[in-house]
Amino acid sequence: MTKWCGGFSLLVAALGCCQVASAQDEQNEVTVAVPGLRAIDGDDGVANELTGWLRAGASAVEGWQLHTAAVSLEQFMIVHGCEDANEDCLSKIAEGIAADRLISGSVSRVLAEDGDGYDFEAELFYFDASTGEIEKTSTLRFPKSQSTPQELAVMGQVEVQALADAPLDELGKEQALNLILSREAELGLHQSTLDLLTGRPKEFPAWPAAVSYAGTLVFLGLSAWSWSTIRNVEKDPAFQRARLLAGPDVNDVCASGSNLGVEELGSLCSKADRHETLQWVFLSMGLASAGVGTWLLVKSAKSRKRPDRARLHLTPIAGRRRGGVTARLEF
What we know:
The chain starts with a helix and ends with a strand. It folds into two domains: about 30-200 and about 310-330, Rossmann fold (3-Layer(aba) Sandwich); about 205-305. The strands form two sheets. Strands 1, 2, 3, 4, 5 and 6 form a six-stranded mixed β-sheet that branches. Helices cover about 55% and strands about 20% of the residues. The chain is built from eleven helices and eight strands. The protein is rod-shaped and about 110 Å long. The protein is α/β, with parallel strands linked by helices and about 325 residues long.
């Protein structure tokens, strides 16, 4: 009886320890929200794309739980009546959504270094709700040519790593890709970025090929109509009479140079010549339209093919002053 009670006590103690450990893990997990970057000069596409990759990076940091809020920083500021994204305002935002950390900022245009055109500049901050202070800031400057999803993917995740000062999970490429795609709604990635990650090119529609083939039928029909008109001219009684008058030695009565006593011959020959030209024009256009339609159909069929597996490589990097992760996309 004593042994049974002792075993039962050990079992209860073990379960209690598991529950305590689980509770401690949950308590140690930091909730991080990444409000959408403010587009100071109206470049919403770049701001949203970079925001999505910041969220993707935050979701891969060990010990971090990405907050489900996908609202922009500007919208949060309006809700809380803030004129500036200062620490008081950020404290209100963090408290309102129960977030431990905030990562956000703004994207604006600056004069390009060569003086021709403009570059983008992203001002990012890392806010700690427990201290009520902006712990770190970061400035990214990149030319317009580097505002592609591939470039922003690397920049976004490297910056999150630097701001977090924490190692990323050792995710395999498939796990990382599945993580990002499963949180598509939270991360706010554009469809173009998701297509890029999964290797899905934009589908080319099939309707242009159908239109081209319809044009082929129309042109071939017009060519057949011109051919039929020429045959009808040759069967006309006046044309037949001119042939009899010209004799067997004349192959083309229209090229004889006279009407051979048949007044209608001139108009009939003019009509036949016109439709002979149209016949070849319509036939050529029909064949060309068929060729274009076939090319469009093949292009549409190729665009619908999907690779079996996407390839996304995340390689953590570390240094004395800066850490990061290099993202490499293969497709």
